[in-house]
Amino acid sequence: MVDTAVLRAPRSLNHIAYPTWDSQRTHDFYTRVLKCPFLAAIRLDVVPSSGERTPYLHTFFGLHDGGAIAFFEVDGLDRPIPDGIPSWIRHIALDVDSVEELDAWKAHFAAEGVETVGIVDHDGVWESLYLFDPNGVRVELTVQTRPLTDDDARSGAEVLAAWNARPR
C-alpha cells in the first residue's frame, strides 16, 4: 500500500509547454528578448506518451530557478480559432527580483520594440509588466512586494465563498 500521508503540493514547476508555429522566431524572442538560455531541442515523429504519429520539434528555454518554458512546433498544425476567452486570462507569470529590475525590463522591451502594458500594481502585493510573445502567449513579469499571509488566505476564502454564493 502506498503512503499518501507524505504527499504535499509539488515542489516547483519543471516546465510549461505552448504551441509555436515558428520555432526560430520563438527561439529569437526567448533568447534575445527574454534572456532565457536555450536548453534543448528534441525532434520526434511519435509522441512518447500517446504513441500518436505526429512529427514535431520540442524546444526548451531556461529560467533562472531551473524551470523552463517549452514549445512544440507540430507539422501541419493550424493556428486555433479564437475561442472567445479574453487574452489576459491565459498567461504565464514569471518572477523578477525587484521593482528596479521590472523597470529595467520595461526599458529593455522598449529598446527591442516590444509593446508592453504596465507596470500594474495588483492590490499592493505584486507589480507586473505584460507583453505577448510571437505565439500570442501573454507573459507577465512580476515582483511580489510583500508575502501573502494567513490573513490573505482567510480574506481570500471569504471572497471565494461570496463569489460562489452570488446569484447566477
What does this structure look like?
This protein is of the alpha/beta class. The protein has two domains: 13-77, 2,3-Dihydroxybiphenyl 1,2-Dioxygenase, domain 1; 89-159, 2,3-Dihydroxybiphenyl 1,2-Dioxygenase, domain 1, CATH 3.10.180.10. Helices cover 24% and strands 33% of the residues. It is built from three helices and eight strands. It has helices at 23-33, 99-112, 150-165, and strands at 15-19, 38-46, 53-62, 68-74, 91-95, 117-122, 126-132, 138-144. The strands form two sheets. The chain has a four-stranded mixed β-sheet with strand order 1-4-3-2, with helices on one face. A four-stranded mixed β-sheet has the order 5-8-7-6, with helices on one face. A hairpin with a 3-residue loop joins strand 6 (117-122) and strand 7 (126-132). The longest helix is centred in the last third of the chain and has 16 residues, at 150-165. The chain starts with 14 loop residues before the first strand and ends with a helix. The mean pLDDT is 94.
For CATH, the homologous superfamily of the largest domain is named as 2,3-Dihydroxybiphenyl 1,2-Dioxygenase, domain 1
Uncertain regions: pLDDT < 50 for 5+ in a row? none
Q: Outline the biggest β-sheet.
A: 4 strands, mixed
What share of the residues does DSSP label as strand, in percent?
25-35%
Order of neighbouring strands in the sheet with most strands: 1-4-3-2
Q: Any guess at the CATH architecture of the largest domain?
A: Roll
Mean pLDDT: 94
Query: Helix segment count?
Result: 3
Q: What is the H-and-E element order?
A: EHEEEEHEEEH
CATH class of the largest domain: Alpha Beta
How many discrete domains? Answer: 2
Distance between the termini: 44 Å
Q: Helices and strands: which structural class?
A: alpha/beta
Rg, rounded, reads 19 Å
